[in-house]
Amino acid sequence: MTGSLPFLRTALLAAASAAASFPTVAQAQDVISREVVQPLPSEEVQRLNRALVALARTPRDLDALVEAGTAAMGVDDLEAAVGFFGRAADIDPAHPRVALGLGTVYLRSGRPEEAIPQFDRALAAGVPAREVLADQGLALDLIGNQTSAQAAYGQAITLDPGNDEARRRLAISFAISGNRARFEEALRSLLDKRDMAAFRARAFGLAILGDQERAASITEQVMPRDLSSRIVPYLAYMPRLTAAQKAAAANLGIFPRAADIGREDPRLARFAAEAKAGSRLEPAGAPLGGKQGAQSPAVSPALVSPPAPTAKPSSPPAPLPVIATVVAAPQSPPPEPVRPAGPPPPPEPPQRVADAFADFVADELPDARVGAGAVDLARITVKREPPPKPKEPPKPVHPSRVWVQVATGKKADALGFDWRRISRSGGNVLARLKPHTTPWGEAHRLLAGPVDRRETAEAMVRELKGKGVDSFLYVSPEGEEIRQVK
């Protein structure tokens, strides 16, 4: 339990210190009774404490070790979680929850090459696929295999339509692949229900696709100012990252060092090469539903719908296939048939139309000649319709715009009075702008604008500050209704 010893030591020292601080009976007579209000620890901390108490009684309790590892991840102590799950693996390496826990903690630590084998073990041990596929897809994204990652996310959503995290990860994977239409489509339902994590995913996806200005505006809208000010500079570097670095930054918040921007991680490159070369991660047999010898990306057997089995009253149903992580790689061509020794056959001549019908006539077909009054089809140019253009998502009724926020208030009707007072203090800066309002939690924002550019709004904020008017830049997200104050 190497990862958990520091925590246990700290807990024991804290308990001893607390016991030493209690007054004696003699001292208690002089103590004045006062009511003390102390916040209770979070549910995850309580869960970890209960597991530690169980481990103090039985250090090799497998269930308690798994519980402690899961709770440690809940409080973001990944090092302790690795220690708990590692000790559990020493007891029972084939336990499904141990493999799943190790895979999850390795994934959150940015170690996909260690997470992928653990997810395979968990699936083989019987963990339901719906609990593994979303994390398995992220691990594949983190080694730069977006094709297989998107297939895993799609299967996870099919098994669990309410898995919003899989949808957000799928959208980012599409952005990494450069597919903006699928990126927007994957997030649309989440944005419609105002899922804040989806707005964060959209900001990173837009940055990956090169739209830094819109990405920065969304980040400033949905994140606290101190946090957004630290993240926005990183968004400009997103297009320069490798596919694996983009996935780590957008999903886990792990950014590479400046010297490593755009450089492949040697560990991940070696793992991806070994996975492509080894047979452990390759599916056995031809893809289900495909033609013999057809070239198609390799996907996990569970990510392809199997054909319906023939009904047999006396036979039990066939077991579901075990899902295995598969790294997309071109399939090897079928082996050449064994030919007798001898000179190689001459190359086949190009096939002609006449040769295709040779079985239907005794003699070779005559050359076609254009008779008098006949129409020569060879001279007719067939007009082909251009392929349909991909449909762009409809433009929002309320587009994203730049504003200067000058106040907030609970009652929207009272903001008109506030505007008259603030506009007098702002003078010429606010004279040409109109007051607007939009809900903000239980209150309302009072906005001046709209302003044509961010730079103009920032200059206005500085000028208003000199006049004693507190204000800041606000960029309204797409779809947010902004009403003019009457």
Automatic annotation (TrEMBL):
<feature type="region of interest" description="Disordered">
    <location>
        <begin position="281"/>
        <end position="353"/>
    </location>
</feature>
<dbReference type="InterPro" id="IPR051012">
    <property type="entry name" value="CellSynth/LPSAsmb/PSIAsmb"/>
</dbReference>
<dbReference type="InterPro" id="IPR007730">
    <property type="entry name" value="SPOR-like_dom"/>
</dbReference>
<feature type="domain" description="SPOR">
    <location>
        <begin position="396"/>
        <end position="477"/>
    </location>
</feature>
<keyword id="KW-0732">Signal</keyword>
<feature type="compositionally biased region" description="Pro residues">
    <location>
        <begin position="331"/>
        <end position="350"/>
    </location>
</feature>
<dbReference type="InterPro" id="IPR036680">
    <property type="entry name" value="SPOR-like_sf"/>
</dbReference>
<feature type="repeat" description="TPR">
    <location>
        <begin position="62"/>
        <end position="95"/>
    </location>
</feature>
<feature type="compositionally biased region" description="Low complexity">
    <location>
        <begin position="294"/>
        <end position="303"/>
    </location>
</feature>
<feature type="signal peptide">
    <location>
        <begin position="1"/>
        <end position="28"/>
    </location>
</feature>
<feature type="compositionally biased region" description="Pro residues">
    <location>
        <begin position="304"/>
        <end position="320"/>
    </location>
</feature>
<dbReference type="Pfam" id="PF14559">
    <property type="entry name" value="TPR_19"/>
</dbReference>
<dbReference type="GO" id="GO:0042834">
    <property type="term" value="F:peptidoglycan binding"/>
</dbReference>
<dbReference type="InterPro" id="IPR019734">
    <property type="entry name" value="TPR_rpt"/>
</dbReference>
<dbReference type="Pfam" id="PF05036">
    <property type="entry name" value="SPOR"/>
</dbReference>
<dbReference type="InterPro" id="IPR011990">
    <property type="entry name" value="TPR-like_helical_dom_sf"/>
</dbReference>
<keyword id="KW-0802">TPR repeat</keyword>
<keyword id="KW-0677">Repeat</keyword>
<protein>
    <submittedName>
        <fullName>Sporulation related protein</fullName>
    </submittedName>
</protein>
